[in-house]
Write a structure and sequence with these properties.
It is built from six helices and no strands. The N and C termini lie far apart (64 Å). It is mainly α and 165 residues long. It has one domain. Helix content is 79%, strand content 0%.
Length: 165
């Protein structure tokens, strides 16, 4: 792994420690902002997915023997599937970026008196911690399954295989 440090302390000068601490604090703050942005995006995707499921239920109440309702179900559920795929991919991207940020934080901490984030990670690992991303990825997957079922129901309704009473 390439070093986060641009040059050794000896070449840097007398403000190395103060500049290191300031940069460390700034970098940790950017990590916190990244987490906030990730949570906002999750709320957005969750809200839109829930709205789509609500729309699908309204269309299903209209009856799947109605060709227009079936087409609406297919289109809406297909859009939901696409949204879930994007959501799942974005979660992976955030996970990669978070991991990279924590690698840099861990390296910066080697020059500081306390390794807070590294120690926290080690303590979490001893407790069989599951990274948030593992749990987080279940949500778009579950909504994706609901949307996939919606597509199948819509197609079956369009083909006249399913009839509502």
């Amino acid at each position: 792994m390439p070093s986060a440090f641009s040059r050794p302390k000896e070449e840097y000068g007398g403000t190395f420690e103060a500049d290191l601490l300031a940069q460390y604090a700034l970098f940790v703050e950017t990590e916190e902002r990244l987490v906030d942005r990730r949570q906002q995006e999750n709320r957005f995707f969750l809200s839109v997915s829930a709205l789509i499921v609500t729309g699908l239920s309204v269309l299903l109440e209209q009856g799947i023997s109605d060709k227009q309702a079936s087409l609406g179900i297919i289109l809406l559920a297909g859009a939901g599937l696409g949204l879930c795929f994007a959501w799942y991919s974005i979660i992976g991207s955030y996970s990669d970026l978070n991991s990279a940020k924590f690698e840099v934080i861990a390296e910066l901490e080697t020059k500081l008196p306390l390794r807070m984030f590294e120690a926290e990670w080690e303590a979490a690992q001893r407790r069989d911690y599951k990274p948030f991303t593992v749990i987080e990825k279940h949500v778009p997957f579950i909504f994706g399954l609901l949307h996939a079922i919606g597509v199948v129901v819509g197609v079956l309704g369009l083909l006249g295989v399913l009839h509502s009473s």
